[in-house]
Amino acid sequence: MSLFSDTLATSRFQPLSRILVCDVFSSGLNGWMSLMPNFTQAPNFDTRESVVVKHQWPPVMLSTATYRYPGTHGALSGAYSLKLSTRPVANRYEEMPAPGSLGHAIKRLSFHHLKRKRLQFEMWFAYTAEQDQVNGGYDLGGLSENSLRAFGVAFDLQEKGSRAFTGLRYVNSVNGQPHRKWQYIFPSEVSDAQWAYGTEGDWCKRGVDPLWYGRRYPDGRHDGFQYLPGGEQELCYNETDCKINWLYFRMLLDIENREYIELQAQDRIFDMGGLPIYSIPAYARIEGLLNPLIWVENDATRRVFFYVDSVMISQD
What we know:
- This protein is mainly β.
- The chain has a single domain, classed as Galactose-binding domain-like (Jelly Rolls, Sandwich), CATH 2.60.120.260.
- The protein contains three helices and 19 strands.
- Strands 1, 4, 7, 9, 14, 15, 16 and 19 form an eight-stranded antiparallel beta sheet that branches. Strands 8, 10, 11, 12, 13, 17 and 18 form a seven-stranded antiparallel beta sheet that branches. A two-stranded antiparallel ribbon has the order 2-3.
- Strand 5 and strand 6 form a beta hairpin.
């Protein structure tokens, strides 16, 4: 908190009455880490068999947001931001995500306050594609905006006997075509096998880990997400990777009644009142889970980068 005064915290963010997390990444990773496979299987600490390949996900890091010209952006607050990246690989949208086409960051928390009704996630973020190729045309040249498929924020929650993934993602591009729409996490009526891309016996259940599970469709639909009504939005994105703009995001949830409340992106507020949060029976040993997640996904065979300057998580 030494780099982040109370005045700055309350003027840049809109926290609820009880602040849980106030992370400025110029001071370090603050407990955010890469999402890794579970090395739990005998006899040699193998990973659990799954249709999803997890060992190609790139690590999160601290970054000065260097660009090739050369130079560095720094951050909104000092030198460093949290950087998520992808590898230069991508399948078509309607296929299963290519190994390495998603980058994830997670912070592992638990609830500590019994009288909890609302939960809020706020961040300042930016994103860009690597300026490594010129293919002709405005969007395919230096701009490269359509190389980024989607980014999102979620909570993995478990309390009172149930587990719930709740969050939002911005679908920026579908197979290279601009989409620019918000979706919220809520699974379609599919079986567990359909949720795992038609695989029988995969460990994941419907509604869990919608970041990479859930079938996708060529028109941008996804079995793990629903379109936010009126959720079309053009975000501020500048021409080249030496021009990133810091954007504001806020997600407010009613965890007492298991409903979404609202989304704010830049200066626009979307009313989500009454949209339900889907839950499943609790998993063993993780009661009180409060894990925030951030991710970014590729839509082209080039790397894309997602930068987070600071995060505020609060509740009341």
